[in-house]
TrEMBL record:
UniProt feature coiled coil, ranges: none
Matches recorded under SMART domains: Aamy (SM00642)
Domain Glycosyl hydrolase family 13 catalytic: residue ranges: 18-435
Protein name as catalogued: Alpha-amylase family protein
Database matches in Gene3D superfamilies: Glycosidases, Golgi alpha-mannosidase II, Oligo-1,6-glucosidase, Domain 2
Transmembrane segments: none
InterPro entries: GH, GH13_cat_dom, Glyco_hydro_b, O16G_dom_2
Amino acid sequence: MRERDLWYKRAVMYALDVETFQDSNDDGIGDFQGLIGRLDYLATLGISCIWLLPFYPSPNRDNGYDVMDYYNVDSRLGTLGDFAAFIHEAKERGIRVLVDLVVNHTSDQHPWFQQARHHKNSKYYDYYVWSKEKPKEPIAQPAFAGEQAGIWSYDEIAKEYYLHRFYSHQPDLNLSNSEVRKEIHHIMGFWLALGVSGFRLDAAHILVQSDRDSDSDVYMGFIEDMREFISMHSRDAILLAEASGPPEVVGKFFKGKDRMHMMFNFLLNQHLFLGLAQKKGTAIAEGLRILPGKAYTSQWLNFLRHHDELNLEDLKKEEQQDVFEKFAPEENMRIFERGIRRRLAPMLHGDRHRIELAYSLLFSLPGTPVIQYGAEIGMGDDLSLPERNSVRTVMQWSPEENAGFSDAPPVQWPRPVIDKGDFAYQHVNVWGQQRQTNSLLNWMERVIRLRRQCPELGDGKCDIIETGNEQVFAHSCGLQYTLIAVHNMGETACTVTIPDLIEQDATILEVFSNNNYELPQQGQVKLDPYAYRWFRLHPKNKAKENL
Ligand code: NOJ
């Protein structure tokens, strides 16, 4: 890839689910036309890439991750024509679109599975993984502890067991079958031809595991084929892996130049929450230190929360406990024995200082940031909803009845709006925050704007700066300019020395902070409780350029 094609290193991403974003035809379900109507909002928020959650025809038993047809749009959300119009309108505004590629499994309602279970002689039988007897020692554990009894279920029609790493209604595809691999390439080619800028490869770490062999490298060749396919069919489309696990597992996805362009940074995500819970900067430094190496063209995708649980599985038991105690003290806030089913703002009790601290970290850490729809206004969660639906409520646009989401009665909606407590749409909504100068939404627009002006954060060389104070995290990112960010995770004010700010030949500009501070003297940086300060060093003769 040429330098200018590395757009994903400079991107600010926004994840959304069409069905909960904006309804345009009053049937109570968000749709592509509704989304098109909100593109100006997204463009002026400043994001440059949308990650669209699955919108394919689906029985919707796993929020659309149970696909019934890979080549279409669910009729509740619109048509393929609406999709094409959406891509066109997004491009007009300089916004790219990534879509989910869910090929670890299909829905059990997919015609392939229906053919397979009824006709063992059909080619579709080999699209799935079958066993006459129930395997005694399955090589993998269910992905959702406490929700699934196991990874093999009996099919009454086929009279055999089939493999499913996720729910029993999601049979796993058989990736050792070359026909299945061909089919996946077809699917990719189809959506690339419609103008998408790449794919989020769902459950990538599970996809590469063989059902019969514990060697997780078995299907890495398949990942490399996908990379080759995408490079041959598009100048700049990318593959983003949803791969979690310890450094040695996720590191494989970044090996060399021919695997993933991007990967969700689950390891840093967990350490960010550990740092917020323990009020320590050292946890974040550790989260960066353990990351596996990557090729120059690869990039981490940093996040705080998204549509799934906050997964804490890579922290030590006592660290997990710290995070649970601080952010999910009640049993109902936890899920799958390893996670938290809450949004960020309620986890931080709506404390604006801490919310800004968390997002200032997200936007300044090395990598590309992604936020979930509604994060920009500090939307809350609804713990009365089952499972992960707690964090998937409809977008809160205005204080009017139905929050501006739909004119249909709420019983017809995919999920309700939050209408009680501190995060109710009557107080937390886009319209209200656009009118308030000091709103979180206006703050978010500022940080996104600044982030996009500082390519060193996405593409620069990152160094952790030792401050000798464990509640502080400081780092620098250098490209053409150097940005130094200092964060105080603690609840007490402090002053630290940042040697890099005793620079002689550069002008120090404070470009973002939680307060109006004096410029540091002799590298002494004063910090309020939960403070953040970003400095940019400009070589003296270039100080007027670029800002
Ligand atoms: C990963 C998705 O993020 C999650 O929401 C889904 O439940 C699983 N894949 C299984 O499809």
